[in-house]
Amino acid sequence: MVIDDSNTIRRSAEIFLVQAGCQVLLAEDGFEALAKIAEHKPDIIFCDIMMPRLDGYQTCALIKKNTHFRDTPVVMLSSKDGLFDRARGRMVGSDQYLTKPFTKDSLLQTVGSFVTPVQVV
Q1: pLDDT tens across 71-121, in order?
Q2: pTM, whole model, 2 decimals?
Q3: For residue range 41-62, what is the model confidence (pLDDT) as tens digits?
Q4: Into how many domains does the chain fold?
Q5: Which CATH number covers residue 106?
């Protein structure tokens, strides 16, 4: 699942992941994502930090507090690469941090570190 308010980021991630054989769910914000997570139970979640209504930190915290989804890997996405942002992500339970703009290789390597098998095409 890719949660990001940027259509460009969502579509780029979707293209890279579909080319690698993954099924992809998309959401524009945390509220939309939470409903889809409950219904589809994704294997990994990429979550933008800066989103309207429910930001990525809040979304990640809600996912990790849910007993059914706490073990689902959450990777924070951000154009910021600061120590504070990474630490705050860890505090709410994120499993990894990926800086935008990401490459196809970095996205697929991240997926491969949590979900197997992923073939890098």
Answers
A1: 999 999 998 877 888 899 999 999 999 999 999 999 999 999 998 765 554
A2: 0.93
A3: 999 999 999 998 899 999 999 9
A4: 1
A5: 3.40.50.2300
Contacts of 120 (CB under 8 A, 6+ apart): 20, 105, 108, 109, 112
Whether residue 120 lies inside any domain: the answer is: no
d(CA 50, CA 55): 6
Compute how many other C-beta atoms are within 10 angstroms of the C-beta atom of residue 102: 19
* Burial classification of residue 108, based on how many CB atoms lie within 10 Å of its CB (0-12 exposed, 13-18 middle, 19 or more buried): buried
**Apex 48 CA angle, 52 and 61, nearest 5:** 85
